[in-house]
Amino acid sequence: MRPRLRLVAELAGPLSLVVVVAVAGSAMSIAQQGNAINVLVTATIVVALYVFIGNSGVWSFGQISFVAVGAFAAGLLTSPTATRQTSMPTLFKFLATTQISNTESLVLAAGLGAVFSFLAGLVLMRLSGLSAGIATFAVLEITYDVLTYWDKIGPGATTLALVPVTTSMTVGAVGCGIAIVVAFAYQHTRSCRLLRASREDPVAAQGLGISVFRHRLVAFTISGGLAGFAGALFVHELGSISTGQVYIDLTFATLAMLVVGGAGSLWGAVLGGMGLGVVDAFLSNAENGVAFGSVNVTLPNGMRVVILGVLMVVVLIIAPKGVTGSREFLERFLSKRPGRAGAGNKPGGSLAGGASVADDGSQAVPSPSRTQS
Amino acid sequence: MSKSKSKLNRSYRRRGAGLLVATISALVLASCGASTSSPGGSPSTTGAKSPIIIGAVIDETNTMKPFDVPALNAAEIQASQINASGGVDGRKIVFKVYNDQLVPALTRSDAIAAVSAGASILWVSCDVNFATPAIQVGLQHKLLTIAPCIGTDQMGPSLFGPAGKLAFSYGNAPQSDGAVLARLLIQHGWKTATVVTDKLLTYFTDVCQNFSTDFAKMGGHVVSQLSYTTGDHTVTQVASQAAQSGAAATVLCTTTTPDLPAFVTAVRTLGNAKPIVGPWAIDGGFWEPSNPAISTNIWWSTFASVFGDDPSPQIRALEAEMVAKGEAPVTGGFVTGPAAVQGIVTAIKDAGGSLNGTRLAAIMQTFHDVNTISGPVSFSSTYHTVVGRPYRIIEDTAGKPHFVEILTPGPLGS
């Protein structure tokens, strides 16, 4: 009974948070609703990051590439063709004339993200550690340069404008929910469990015949698909996109959210994405002045970044594995059974806490670092 | 061990719960509603007529601050002078300012907040890429949407389609920037040029392309075309090639830091003392190397001289007022702010006091040599960014920039 309850909680926790943000956001002013929608979209990106980084333990700085590809594809093909042909006269003809619906653009973005990440992953997933991180960063750079300078496939260095704004609160919440469900479903597959085992001890995993490359590639592709999907939500939230918006700033902001929440669990990704997103939105508003009853508080310009930085440092000092300790929602509470191994056995296990693949009953990878009483 | 696990468990739960509570609290607090400053003064309480609210969504923190803030400060001074003399047919001009920090989502929500706060006109940042989320909100609500100093011709129908009829910039179009630099070189007898383009911004590429075209039409000859991207660490190699090109002048379309000082230093160090010429983007002089032998024979075009020697008494007075308030402008772009206010007021008066965006835009599009503090302003159905306005030419000699002359670019394509 308990394992089933744990599974329900593992999914219900993040989804509940989505509902809380959506409901609270809907009660706000129209201007503030935009901030709440942005929190949901950002959390979707963080979930996409988690699917690869959290499960593989490989830090990728390139996932925003897939967000960018999804955003530009969805934005371009839903913008008015007449304006496209005048403001982007150098576009390939099929890009200048093809028009798709907003829903189709979400599917297309997810597909493109998955295909692009699969192709990139064929090369990158053979690398590990710092090399893999640098290589993924190179993918980000290449994507940025191609999108900025190749004006046959997009607006180039200028802004892509007039994209339909369709990411409402409901669409944002449903989109984020879909990403969570996909991430949840994936982390309970055999492939993901094997990937987690390889994360804790790659040598032992390979010794047991686990193809680290293949399972990383699967995670990378699913992550890329979700990132592309999030990119489509992003462009339909803002109504415009330029390459600078899907580059280094967004990369580090979303990585910071994942780290603060707890990179080893879906709950950590969602809580980090939404928690920091909300704090960020609040501080941004506070720089313009926030009313607490009759008292108006205005933060000095630039304090948003300072406070966020300090907050992140403090959180990471107090909780190096993130505020959730890289545990799933209520995981410790629901899995407390005598003689049972630690949380690392479960899909939501800690990055540093070790793991085995015993959950699916097929294999077990002992990890010396996880020896516990 | 199990006790310590239990403690750990509680600790994690507390942390998670804490962040959850903080999340919900922050959402609730944020929903209390952001208030905005209105440096232009509070809405009129003495007159019966409602104020004209301009919602300014600009950057007061990030890289556009040096452009957005001086333009807004000068605009507020202009507005306060208009208010002091009775306002616009008795209506005061009030700025409601939002700091978008160049965060796209915030830029959009700030613009929505400005509209919700009753703004009849939207005022946006001086970079079209950063400003687009706000511009689209203005266009969606059919508001006259003004940028004081966007320097591309995209602020209008060319980027925003038919809805862009409501969007205008009081900056100069790159076609004008290129043309005036071509005229400067020809006028001084510099008949050959090396053109160096920084690919960082479309604006730089546009200015250098327009310069090259106009320069050739005027009888000049471009010896070589070079390029780099600010921050790509190739600037000294490019400077070396430029220094040895043998051209009478080097035309450089870039921004000030971090690469411009390195470029100038490299060119001079290689023994090339010929003129280095650039557009408004290199205005200010603050970036120049301190060695007077290096910081010499450097020329640029701008809206106004910020070195105390502008030929216009109006501009000198405005600059003095800004200096007295501790808001000394860094570049001549500050005059685009009051020019935009003057343009808005002219349009409102011509519309009989109407604030209808479509009506105001239709009037503004017909502006032909409308007199403003920045000089005559003209728009057309093609150009919603100013073309043909006279420029100030600044020359830097031994590290001391000074006004040289006023130069008009002439009709485009001439």
What's the arrangement of secondary structure elements?
The complex is a heterodimer of chains A (373) and B (414).
Chain A: H1 2-26, H2 30-56, H3 63-78, H4 81-87, H5 93-97, H6 102-124, H7 129-149, H8 169-187, H9 190-200, H10 202-207, H11 212-238, H12 248-261, H13 266-288, E1 290-292, E2 295-297, H14 303-318, H15 331-334
Helix pairs in contact in A: 1-2, 1-8, 1-13, 2-8, 2-11, 2-12, 2-13, 3-6, 3-7, 3-11, 6-11, 8-11, 9-11, 12-13, 13-14
Chain B: H1 2-31, E1 52-58, H2 65-84, E2 93-99, H3 104-116, E3 121-124, H4 128-140, E4 144-147, H5 157-160, E5 167-172, H6 174-187, E6 192-198, H7 202-217, E7 221-228, H8 235-243, E8 249-253, H9 260-269, E9 276-278, E10 298-302, H10 313-324, H11 336-350, H12 357-365, E11 370-372, E12 375-377, E13 385-386, E14 391-397, E15 400-407
Helix pairs in contact in B: 2-11, 3-4, 6-7, 8-9, 11-12
Could you give a quick summary of the protein structure above?
The complex is a heterodimer of chains A (373) and B (414). Chain A has helices spanning 2-26, 30-56, 63-78, 81-87, 93-97, 102-124, 129-149, 169-187, 190-200, 202-207, 212-238, 248-261, 266-288, 303-318, 331-334, and strands at 290-292, 295-297.
CATH topology of chain A: ABC transporter involved in vitamin B12 uptake, BtuC
Number of separate domains of chain B: 2
Major sheet characteristics of chain B: 7 strands, mixed
Approximate strand percentage of chain B: 15-25%
What is the annotated CATH architecture of chain A? Orthogonal Bundle
**Which spans of chain B of ≥5 residues are poorly predicted at pLDDT below 50?**
26-47
What is the count of helical runs of chain B?
12
The CATH topology name of the largest domain in chain B reads Rossmann fold
Which range does the strand content of chain A fall in?
A: under 5%
Count of discrete alpha- or pi-helical segments spanning 4 or more residues of chain A: 15
Instruction: State Rg of chain B.
Output: 24 Å
Strand order of the largest sheet of chain A: 1-2
End-to-end separation of chain B: 86 Å
Second rung of CATH, namely the architecture of the largest domain in chain B: 3-Layer(aba) Sandwich
